[in-house]
Design goal:
The protein has 219 residues and is α/β, with parallel strands linked by helices. It is built from eight helices and seven strands. The protein is globular. The termini are far apart.
Length: 219
């Protein structure tokens, strides 16, 4: 299967993966998938990390002024190849063993190139782990009756309206856990946005895999 065909196949499923609607008000978000053996995409992430996978920087805001180039996909593929391991930006598609880089390129083509960003500009967006201006603005979860809680599968931090998907109203939120020895991170339903900040997420999740990010971007 050719690289271009893989990019097109992956692009067709991105809206389902990220649940971003171009009709919504302005929304910009750095998205993360949590490793979870009970979640389909979470299991893909578990192939590479016990904690998280970066999934991309999303926006529905068009940025005008740039002329697209025929080799944008090739140029971004090369950029992604150099950074994906350092940021846990692994492919979440089972059709792409090895973790890179058609998935990442399809994310760029949909949420970068299509929105007016060059390969390098999008690379800078997706690797910006600074905390300023990044409240929790996306949360996906499923309800687990045994735990009596919403199990968080994906989070996003950035600008725009807070969106919740798959959430049962009322029960608290917890992060996925695999054994009784795991630390259970618990958030009351009405306070999740207050306490699940990007600073907290970096310190308790991201830096368990990529400690260097905590020293380069203040927690």
């Amino acid at each position: 299967m050719t690289g271009l065909l893989l990019v097109l196949i992956f692009s067709a499923t991105l809206k389902l993966l990220f649940c971003l609607d171009y009709g919504y008000p302005i929304h910009e978000s750095l998205h993360f998938q949590l490793a979870d053996p009970n979640d389909t995409i979470g299991r893909e992430c578990l192939k590479y990390s016990n904690h998280f996978c970066l999934t991309g920087w999303l926006t529905n805001q068009m940025m005008f002024g740039r002329q697209t180039q025929n080799d944008d996909d090739f140029r971004f593929y090369r950029l992604a190849k150099n950074i994906y391991k350092s940021f846990n930006w692994f492919s979440l598609r089972p059709q792409e063993p090895g973790g890179c880089c058609y998935f990442q390129t399809s994310v760029y083509m949909e949420y970068g190139r299509k929105m007016g960003l060059s390969p390098w500009e999008y690379r800078n967006k997706v690797t910006d782990f600074s905390s300023a201006g990044k409240p929790l603005n996306f949360l996906m979860a499923y309800y687990d009756p045994k735990a009596c809680a919403n199990i968080i599968t994906r989070v996003g931090f950035g600008r725009g309206q807070f969106r919740r998907i798959g959430v049962k109203y009322g029960p608290p939120f917890i992060f996925p856990f695999r054994s009784r020895n795991d630390t259970v991170h618990f958030f009351f339903y009405t306070q999740v946005r207050k306490f699940l900040t990007f600073e907290w997420f970096k310190e308790n999740v991201v830096c368990r895999d990529q400690e260097w990010l905590c020293s380069n971007f203040e927690v």
